[in-house]
Amino acid sequence: MTYWPALPAALCLLLGSPAIADDEPDALFAEEADKSVEEAQPQADAEALGGDDVAEDAVAEVLFDEDAEPTPEALRQRAQALSRELQEVQTELRQLDMPQGNGRAPVGLIENITLPDNPTRADCEVFIEELAEATQGQNAFSTNDPQVQKLSQIPPEHIDLLIGATSGRSPLRYHASYAMREMDFSNMRSRIDTLLRDQPALIGLVVNQGWALDARDAIRDKIIQRPANLGMAWFQAASELNDPALYAAIHDCVLQARNYSQVVLMLESMADYDVERTVSALWLRNRVEGSSGTRYQVALIAVRFGYVDALEELVSQLAQRGSYYYNNNGENTYDTQRAMVMRYIDYSGSVQEIARWIAEHRDELVFDHVTQRYLLPEQLERF
What does DSSP say about strands 366-368 and 373-375: parallel, antiparallel, or unpaired? Predict the structure, then answer.
């Protein structure tokens, strides 16, 4: 039976039950050589959780006095206190399932899992499954863990299985990344075009090894199919080919993709690609029909290309969030987003005043591509 630790009172009041936010990033070719789950958290999170102790009375006053008007400082302290308590609970919950006191899988169990000589693909699949099962619950990872040496035995022709183990919530995601650093893929280069057709997951290897030209036929065939939700590695590979014959298909793929910002940055590196056409189509498609989050994401791109209504969208969403909007790291994202909007205009005031100013002058505003600002004709003379 698993026993859950008692949750802090403030956390129970606001959340109602324990919550685990397991959001460690995927680790394909991760740069860190030795890390724990806690160390993998973003630096901003560490700073938010590691600050000075918050006065409990101030937090309690915000939590329990329904008639009190929370101040910005009280809200900031509240967010930081809850983030710190949630992190402590998450750590305790992870430790309950830890197979050893040091957070690592039993070495003896790992050593007993072996890969036969000249393994088949099925052998490799079973091998990875057994290692993953033995690694369940491990929350500290190192390049010296025995799983790394074990996984490096996977033959290069089955590297797609190893790539699959680096994604999502696989217990082997760090170990698989470390193992791939040690593997020699050079003998695959001459066959990579054929291998990529049979094993599309190899596109990550193609990009990391700089083999886009070697796999150009397989990449072209994939792009021309115009698949929905094309992965970032395929866009990266296509951008490296820099083939004008693919530009129309790439444009169509972008409209069906995710992570628009990263994709557009890649497109901007391509000679003669009409990025403005793609951005225009993205904004036209999403400014009305897109969800609030998608509109915001695309507006961040479109505003760089002179779309006044994209600037209006950013200001509108900023006004709706209110000035005391915090993320789960205790960061006031309102301030960050407001500063981002302000860099595009030469006007200061409240968000409501900015919205009115843009509405009054929207037909006069000129986008200066040099300064990346929306300016009135008389303001242009000062820049």
Answer: antiparallel
Q: Please state the pTM of the whole predicted model.
A: 0.63
Assess contact for 287 and 310: CB atoms under 8 A. Answer: yes
Burial class (CB in 10 A: 0-12, 13-18, 19+), 82: buried
Residue 332 phi/psi, 5-degree rounding, is -80, 95
Residue 10 to residue 85: CA distance in whole angstroms:
9
How far CA 228 is from CA of 193, 234, 252, 285, in Å, comes to 22, 12, 9, 15
CA 27 to chain centre: 11
Beta-bridge mates of residue 373: 368
Cα 323–325–330 angle (5° rounding)? 125
What is the distance between the alpha carbons of residues 149 and 25, in angstroms, rounded to a whole number?
Answer: 22
* Dihedrals phi, psi of 211, to nearest 5 degrees: -105, 25
Q: Which of 24-28, 144-148, 164-168, 298-302 is the least confident region?
A: 24-28
Q: How far is it, in rounded angstroms, from Cα 202 to Cα 197?
A: 9
